[in-house]
Specification:
This protein is 83% helix and 0% strand. It has twelve helices and no strands. Helix 3 packs across helix 5, helix 4 (55-71) runs parallel beside helix 6 (91-125) and helix 5 packs across helix 10. The protein is flat.
Length: 234
């Protein structure tokens, strides 16, 4: 243990610094949103009274969703749920706005990871070989990316890591498009709409099951491909 700490002391310290900075930014942005009046149902009632059910109102909500996803990458419910509580009779607007804006924010996070991730890894690890090993390890998890996006995990962080690993952009874009539809639907419709329309829960459940089944077959295909490559190299 002492040898491990001695060997990776610099990397551990740098990792702690990075985490502390990211947590500081997340907490800071959250309290800024809270101070500006964008985290409670009452805040959106006031915003609705000011702008009405207009394009401007939904653009503001969409921009807030993007800001929250990028800077507070832990939950999409800070903005989504309060708006859903206000627009309980028109939740399809909340869902559509949350879905598209959070998906766009996901793509931005991917490119943040792709451009800045390898540089950050190089600074932390200070070893080109270790950076390549770490990147390759992350890239091998591409099959499980869709599931990671719907499980109760920090999926925004997962997308940033996907960018760092340089996973195929179109794969990430398509997967996140559909998984964002599922998780935002869950967040929005959980607050009342599914009571009126139970078939929505059937769609969400079937979509989730389908995602797991697809991941299983992709995993089996990947394992078969790897075995074939191993036999060719022998």
């Amino acid at each position: 243990m002492k040898e491990f700490l001695k060997k990776y002391k610099s990397s551990i310290i740098k990792t702690i610094i990075v985490i502390a900075i990211l947590v500081g930014i997340a907490v800071g942005v959250y309290f800024i949103l809270r101070a500006c009046g964008f985290t409670k149902a009452e805040d959106y009632i006031a915003l609705k009274n000011k702008f009405g059910d207009s394009v401007v109102f939904w653009l503001i909500v969409g921009l807030l969703e993007i800001v929250q996803v990028i800077f507070v990458p832990l939950t999409n419910q800070i903005i989504t749920v309060p708006v859903a509580m206000v627009f309980n009779d028109e939740l399809w607007k909340v869902w559509l706005t949350a879905w598209i804006s959070i998906w766009l924010a996901t793509l931005i996070l991917y490119w943040i990871g792709r451009v800045g991730g390898p540089k950050l890894l190089k600074w932390i690890l200070n070893d080109k070989e270790q950076v390549e090993k770490c990147t390759n390890f992350l890239n091998r998890g591409w099959i499980f990316y869709p599931i990671g996006m719907i499980l109760p995990l920090p999926d925004d962080v997962i997308t940033t890591l996907a960018g760092t690993a340089k996973m195929n952009f179109f794969f990430v874009a398509i997967c996140s498009f559909f998984t964002r539809a599922l998780d935002t639907a869950f967040s929005v419709f959980l607050y009342g709409y599914a009571v009126k329309h139970p078939w929505l829960w059937i769609v969400i459940i079937l979509g989730t099951i389908g995602l797991f089944v697809l991941t299983f077959f992709l995993w089996k295909h990947d394992q078969k491909k790897r075995k074939a490559l191993e036999q060719e190299t022998k």
